[in-house]
Amino acid sequence: MHKSSLAALALGGLALTAHAQTKWDFATAYPTTNFHTENLTRFAKEAEEAAGGKLAIAVHPNASLFKAPEIKRAVQGNQAQVGEILLSAYQNEWQVFGLDGLPFLASSYGEARKLYRAQKPVLEKKLGEQGMMLLYAVPWQPQGLYSRKPLNTLTDLKGSKWRAYNPATSRIAELIGAQPVTVQAAELSQALATGVVDSFMTSSATGYDSKTYEHIKYYYNAQAWLPKNAVIVNKKAFEGLDKAAQDGVLKAAAAAEERGWKMSEAKDREYQGLLRKNGMEIAEPSPQMKTDLRKLVGTTMLNEWVEKAGPEGKAIVEAYQKM
């Protein structure tokens, strides 16, 4: 064979190799500085490396590719191959998605890990049926209570404009007599600046990311629940990788999950310190408020959830409570 023909074949081979690189879009709703985004950016890099150059993952933070409520459907339809979702935002679709959004069911990192262990097999099965796979999940920090005015009892929240971001936070508003207003994380700063909301429950991370301290003075360390973000991948997109690349992605996901849980806990202390440094008053809820929250909100919502979730949900809660 002529040398030029051999060269052409070699070049063709190189072109095919370059063309064979799979490209994934990764949609997330949070800013680049958020610990979840920092963690998933590292996951994307490690997954690319582990796939040996066969995979390129483009991370799209801050709801720049899809807004938070659109991400799950986008991954399901392969418009984005990977996405990060807040599980509890999809409770209306399937009750088990909202399990970690139930107040005071699991209110520490140790309890949240147990709840995840009880929930995970059912979660993986459901996502599989929907054409997706769970890569990993990481919790937000325990949810604290933010308010423009000081609070002594739950009645102090009556009539306040309460930020809701999922079915559970809307239900809390109803139970405490507040007015729910749906505001996603990316719009929270604007909602605070324009007075759309004046009370809510969220993590110290979101509180700091949203510069809550510019508008809200009081933060109560209620440790109400630890909602999880899940990183999901389109099943066909994942199956399109060769075995070595698949194994590499799963290995990077396992590392991201372990790292993310540790980051979440360390960042809670850091973010609370930053909120305080920026002028927020951080306090424990009064004993009366704690009791009222657990009874009026926690017990009521767990009973309602079990009724809606049926035997499947009840079995998960019982498995968790036995751990």
UniProtKB/TrEMBL annotation:
CDD domains: PBP2_TRAP_BpDctp6_7. It comes from the Bacteria. Keywords: Signal. The keyword Iron does not apply. InterPro entries: DctP_fam, TRAP_DctP_sf. The keyword Membrane does not apply. Transmembrane segments: none annotated. Pfam families: DctP. Residues 1-20 form the signal peptide. This is TRAP transporter substrate-binding protein. It comes from Caldimonas mangrovi.
